[in-house]
Amino acid sequence: QVQLVESGGGLVQAGDSLRLSCAASGRTSRMYRMGWFRQVPGKEREFVASINWRVSTTYYVDSVKGRFTISKDNAKNTVYLQMNSLKPEDTALYYCATGLYDSWDYWGQGTQVTVSS
Q1: Contact partners, residue 19, CB within 8 Å, separation at least 6
Q2: Nearest to 23 by CA among 109, 83, 112
Q3: pLDDT of 33-74, one tens digit each?
Q4: CA–CA separation, 96 and 117 (whole Å)
């Protein structure tokens, strides 16, 4: 089992920045990748970004490329999502997830990000 706890969400204005953190605990040695997803009411959960835990390869959804950066601190078992130039359409509940290989196996509870115009 891996437990994930997100933090860093909040209410900001358009153009502002936020940094989300996700701390992992438990059987973290099995983690293959970590990622961020987001969801708004009435819509499906959307992939935002991911990072390979060992080789640091990153992936982003097109809508956040150039604005968001995913990074990690292996020693702290923590992944970050630096979000710059936030837009109202970035408003969502942001979830952290980790996968043991080619799946997303564990999820955090989510942290709310609200961007006002």
Answers
A1: 8, 80, 81, 82, 83
A2: 109
A3: 999 999 999 999 999 999 998 888 999 999 999 999 999 999
A4: 25
76: left (phi over 0), alpha (psi -120 to 50) or beta: alpha
- 30: amino acid identity, one letter: R
Tokens representing residue 70 in the block: 């995913």
Nearest alpha carbon to residue 73 among 99, 55, 53, 94: 53
- The whole-number pLDDT of residue 37 equals 98
Residues in the chain: 117
Q: Report the C-alpha gap between 64 and 66 in whole angstroms.
A: 6
Chain centroid, CA 59 distance in Å: 11
Q: How far is CA 91 from the centre of its chain?
A: 13
